[in-house]
Design brief:
three-stranded mixed beta sheet; 12% strand; binds zinc ion; alpha+beta
Length: 153
């Protein structure tokens, strides 16, 4: 069985950050790398508990924390509640469902022109140096919309 590029990159990153590749850390990476659902630490913990019953929640959390510090993922708290972890390190936007909390990646190409960065001195940003711009689309996801339609009838 081959290892996906996303997993290989994350393992290489852990190694470069000087973190020991324990079986638990490797299991977390395998479950998390390439995952488009932006899981919380709790979700990853629940997923792995059946196979790693001795692993603690603290291990999951500290591994995700280390991956974040090493720049291999990011932590996002776009809605109240636990932070969600994002293994996609390419610049991208997010759509967040205000009903179920689901978060999905939105390609930068979908961003309206008005939402792009105005860099440089002065202007509305008052000389702030822009490193990145992120657009968050808040609303209702497809699944929740379908549920809403179904209950309306
Ligand atoms: Zn939803
Ligand atoms: Zn994302």
């Amino acid at each position: 069985m081959g290892v996906s590029p996303a997993i290989a990159t994350m393992i290489e990153g852990l190694r470069r950050a000087g973190l020991k590749l324990t079986p638990q850390r490797l299991a977390i990476v395998h479950s998390f790398a390439g995952d488009p659902t932006h899981p919380t630490a709790q979700e990853i913990f629940d997923r792995l508990r059946p196979v790693l019953p001795t692993m603690s929640f603290a291990t999951v959390y500290s591994t995700l924390d280390s991956l974040t510090l090493a720049g291999l993922c990011s932590a996002r708290a776009l809605l109240p509640g636990a932070a969600r972890f994002d293994p996609n390190t390419e610049p991208h936007d997010h759509a967040v469902c205000e009903v179920c909390g689901a978060m999905r990646d939105i390609d930068l190409g979908a961003r309206p022109a008005g939402a792009r960065a105005e860099g440089g001195e002065g202007g509305a940003l008052g000389g702030f140096e822009v490193r990145s711009v992120e657009t968050i689309y808040r609303g209702v996801c497809e699944r929740c919309r379908a549920l809403r339609e179904a209950t309306r009838r």
